[in-house]
Amino acid sequence: MNWAIVIVGLVLIVLVHELGHFTMALAVGIRPRSFYVGFPPALVKVRRKGIEYGIGAIPLGGLVRIPGMHKLAGHDVTSFMGPAMREEPGLSAAVQRVRRLVDAEDYPGARAALPELRSEIEAATLTPAARRSAERALRELDEGTGADAYWRQPAYKRILVIGAGPAANILCAIVIFFAVYTTGAPSGNPSTKVGEVDSGMPAAVAGLQPGDRVVAVDGKATPTFDRISQLIRGSHGRPITVTVDRGGTTLTLGPERTVREGDRWIWGFVPAATLAKYSVAHSARLAITDVWRVVAGTVGALTSVFRGHPKGQLTSTVGIVRISAAALKVSFNWYLQIVGLVSLSVALLNLLPLLPLDGGHILFTLIETVRRRALAREVYERVSVVGFALIMLLMVIAFSTGNNPQ
Questions:
Q1: Rg for the chain (alpha carbons), in Å?
Q2: Res. 317 pLDDT band, cuts 50 70 90
Q3: Which of 129, 169, 193, 199 could bridge 272 with an S-S bond, Cβ 3.0-4.6 Å?
Q4: With contact defined as beta carbons under 8 Å apart, do 341 and 173 qualify?
């Protein structure tokens, strides 16, 4: 159950990011063509006001399709239509006519020629692969030549749409941190109350349960968790008894032997966190402070990576899941703090000026604004290959440091 909660939390972070893009696009007059919870193929879908809403079969966050992300070129049309033209040479005349209009940047003319091209494609006998490629060409033409195509919008609109994804994650982190501080933030001092019992361990065999409050080990009083830990570690594998308060009833569990884990002896349970609540104003200040600390720490970690001295603040997705699951055992609020940190990290990672990340799209929007002309699709694709390689390098570093994240 804990793992399911962890995975849902990570999926929701990605969904919040995509929802930011979606809502801002609508706000500035760019109508997204689809919004999915999860990735296609669709399990369920419905169309409302020209937008396809669906639930995808791959539960990995969300997906929003914004029309005309890149400027359409004539050779894009012939490239997408290539398989169909090879199978049905009669399509060439209509395709070349549309290509000439696109090359001349006569987008109203290209849109006017679309119905004829679509009719010819529908009437043609094509293999499934060629038909899919032709349908993609029609979709790219329709979306890339429309008045609401992303690449045709003023720079400020494009930056708002792209920046809304990371902004949504930052806002999500602030809300989570604020909620945790107002309802009870883990103080870092574990309590004598049991938060989670590891199955198959001596504590579970002895009958220890979450919610029990440990009051003694081997008859020695344990007013703090440090005292509990000291007595258990000092057992060196011999059987111990643990006295607990369970709903007002005192019970003595065991004796059961402790087991060795690394260089210490354990019984197999996780203490609950001690929670501290703060006022609304103080919670807001603490939330903002946390955001700033994560920003500074992430920038420092990334800088150290490029200098060749990684500090270890980066961690992999596997490491994040492991950390989240461990935090959930201690306290749900502690787990929420991890979710907030991950949401903030997603925002900061996406703001790196590398394609295909959001920061890369913002950078290239500024470049296009200076040169007063949109860059071709292939420029984006080539730069994205380099950006993707750098992102993969960061992932490799994250995996190498993920076993000891800070």
A1: 28
A2: very low
A3: 193
A4: yes
